[in-house]
Design a protein that fits this description.
171 residues; alpha+beta; Alpha-Beta Plaits; SH3 type barrels; 2 domains; 5-stranded antiparallel sheet; 4-stranded antiparallel sheet; elongated
């Protein structure tokens, strides 16, 4: 049995969620749960300012595309390709090309379980980079990007600076 990989499917714009629902229903009806593992419409949270108020909302990262984690074979290809709203797999001709691990990582859509040992309010020292030997207090921890935001004194003012986890250590 071959290994499951991530594939990208092109859809009509605005039909991403409908395509996801249709594929999910087909998986259930045809009992393909062990071959098509996950169907995902990558979303990101955006903050919009309307009439002076901030509003958080979800926005599609890749409009017109759906990502599918599946084992590619004739059955799964046929099911996905013939789903209403799907125009085809991304790849040359009719041959789907799976995403590489590096591509998946760079997209930032996978919810990797990143464990951090930094907390807001903690004092750290920068060990490398432009801010080497700077001491600061952690104001924000971003596990997804693996960065800390600290305040440093610059020209007599507190200025927020984003630093990689690899460039700091606890005091």
């Amino acid at each position: 049995m071959s290994e499951a990989k991530w594939y990208v499917v092109h859809t009509y714009s605005g039909y991403e969620n409908k395509v996801k629902a249709n594929i999910d229903k087909t998986i259930e009806n045809r009992h393909l749960e062990d071959q098509i593992l996950e169907v995902r419409v990558p979303m990101q949270e955006v903050v919009e300012v309307k009439n002076g108020t901030q509003k958080a909302s979800q926005k599609k990262m890749f409009p017109g595309y759906v990502m599918i984690h599946m084992i590619m074979n004739d059955d799964t290809w046929y099911v996905v390709r013939n789903t209403r709203g799907v125009t085809g797999f991304v790849g040359p001709g009719s041959k789907p090309v799976p995403l590489t691990d590096a591509e998946i990582d760079s997209l930032g859509i996978m919810d990797a379980a990143i464990v951090t040992n930094y907390e807001v309010g903690e004092t750290i020292v920068v060990t490398s980079g432009a801010w080497k030997d700077t001491v600061g207090m952690v104001k924000e921890v971003n596990s997804q990007k693996q960065t800390l935001t600290i305040n440093v004194e610059l020209f007599g003012r507190e200025t927020p600076v984003e630093i990689q986890f690899s460039e700091v250590k606890k005091m």
